[in-house]
Amino acid sequence: MTEPASSAERPAPTRAQRHTRGPAPTLHDVAREAGVSLATASRVLNGSERKVAESFRERVEAAAAELGYTANVSAQATARGTSPVIALLVADIADPYFGLIASGVARGADEHGLVVTVAITDRDPARKARIVRALRGQRPRGLILAASGTQEPIEADVAHDLAEFSRLGGRVVAFGPGSGVERSIEIDNRSGAEALGRRMAERGYRSAIALGAAEGVWTSDDRLAGFRAGFEASGGAVVRTLRGGFLRESGAESMAAALADGVPTGTLVFAITDVVAIGAMSAIRDAGREIGADIAVCGFDDVPASSDVSPALTTVRVPLSEVGYQAFRATVDADWEQAPLPLDVVVRASTPGVPR
Amino acid sequence: MTEPASSAERPAPTRAQRHTRGPAPTLHDVAREAGVSLATASRVLNGSERKVAESFRERVEAAAAELGYTANVSAQATARGTSPVIALLVADIADPYFGLIASGVARGADEHGLVVTVAITDRDPARKARIVRALRGQRPRGLILAASGTQEPIEADVAHDLAEFSRLGGRVVAFGPGSGVERSIEIDNRSGAEALGRRMAERGYRSAIALGAAEGVWTSDDRLAGFRAGFEASGGAVVRTLRGGFLRESGAESMAAALADGVPTGTLVFAITDVVAIGAMSAIRDAGREIGADIAVCGFDDVPASSDVSPALTTVRVPLSEVGYQAFRATVDADWEQAPLPLDVVVRASTPGVPR
DNA sequence: TCCAAGTGCCCACGAAGAAGA
DNA sequence: CTCTTCTTCGTGGGCACTTGG
């Protein structure tokens, strides 16, 4: 290689404008500069089975370096018929839940030299439908639907697009069950919540208020049902279920409403999400009540913030980043099988337990 | 349109394999199906100034719908010479700081029908260099560097790639100063931290410990310098500066080290980031000390978690999502000027003040 | 190793039809 | 009724790259 040469002594200084304004150098430019054919240049610069003689390879590489050539990914994609991208659909990237998942996906993608594009649904089904449709145009290798869905018919058109998507060779991975989806990542929300419920009942709680999202949303339904099952099987009773969303504010509002109606000391609040639980905690505090001995709170996910609030939040640990990584693997591995995702109940100070 | 028709009675059932396995329908297919030329189909389906007669337009649209056609973005990109993507480079997408920025970027991109691809540097300069280089191949419309950089020479190669990037027509937007960058988003870290320092001194603090990142990292340097300036101008003294990183753990470790050496009651801890501050808080608590009256803590950013920890964290509010949105605008607006980004000190319970 | 035929799409141009004088 | 002048569609070349022969 002759790279340390200053730009003054180029082999063939025909194109003086090379290092000035202008379009990106193309493979064509490299080939001409190296005095080889397009095919040869292509083969040395981009992965190909066929080998090329060392002398040619060197010349091409030198020319590429000298010109500052970078392959045009779009062109490669159209020529190859497939593009090196994984599309990730989340409800809200600022939510730590999705942030952690995204980091896992990104890690995997990165290991495989793929890029990940992120789209945000904002929990709007119509928007989700639009995005999925638009994403089809990208012809990504894989599509990961992390935004939790509903079982409503509103998702029917999305299902169609997803089916179409995988028919075209893309792999669709969704969280939770879903139609038109080949592979799905199952977070065992039900069992996790059940274990939490049981554990809480064992700690002496007998009466609980549940904070969920709208009916029909998988994650919410499963966690709610699981918690109730575990809690009631061990002697507790879920006395009330409030419906809201997945936002912090939603938790605060629901909790405020509950408090307005009166919440006896010793009550346990279960929120479908740590974020919601944290919102509830702030409402409890705002109402002048105490978290813990007075009103206990538990959540789900174990996002980082949960161990930092105080009292620290009892929750169910979900290995979110790992979940994201697995979702990625599901999009690329031919023979993929979901590895078990252990969910552990982690008891912290927000549920000190009640003396019986 | 005759969409409610079941797939049984299609107008021209010539190609039986249409709805089975196979490649995506191309513009060619649509044109043939509609009995028009490629050009006409292209004009109606993809934005073009030129108009086409209503009758033709309808036929093309019907054909497209019937075939389930979606334009191949890669092909469009190579033909047009530009792709509809904005690349976003962050250090860690699971960090709320970047999560919020990303959400702002995504919002903007979405308004303009652009997709955003996210790449993670993990705060590794070499990795950052690799990514920037790889991203060049994507020929994105814009490149947003949110990962905070250093002034070290290690960034030189990145600078070259960035310059090359913008020479090719892409717009590079970076946070903070940077070479090879056309536009930059300036968060006035220095002034914000200075205001915080002043305010803290006014509340009676006289001695502070600062928790920063490695020397040479812009954000860290600016915040540290600003805080010191404000705090000392109003009568305080920064007695020690510990170097770590931007992670929660880093804050915990640095603080633990400080505590091991002894930290007098009434000391204020300033962390360059809320996340770091929260880590410090946990270390303080672990050491059996009290946050607030004993050791006060303040941070920077005002991420959501800061108002949920308790005592709630005093900090400087940075409108992160708005910052992200602006960064996006900077990549697309021809005549862009940074709108002022107000930074406000928000005092909370973690700095109750000391009686003088 | 090179040639040439793709990959799916865009767009400048020329031609044909309709409308107006 | 003929000769412009628009309007609008189709032809062909091109984009940057891949791949079988």
Automatic annotation (TrEMBL), chains A, B:
Record carries keyword Transcription regulation: yes
Name listed for the protein in its UniProt record: LacI family transcriptional regulator
A Pfam entry, by short name: Peripla_BP_3
UniProt keyword annotations, A-Z: DNA-binding, Transcription, Transcription regulation
Disordered as annotated region, ranges: 1-26
Protein's UniProt keywords contain DNA-binding: yes
Sequence ranges assigned to domain HTH lacI-type in this UniProt record: 25-80
Record-linked SUPFAM superfamilies: lambda repressor-like DNA-binding domains, Periplasmic binding protein-like I
InterPro entries (UniProt xref): HTH_LacI, LacI/GalR-like_sensor, Lambda_DNA-bd_dom_sf, Peripla_BP_I
PROSITE patterns on file: HTH_LACI_1, HTH_LACI_2
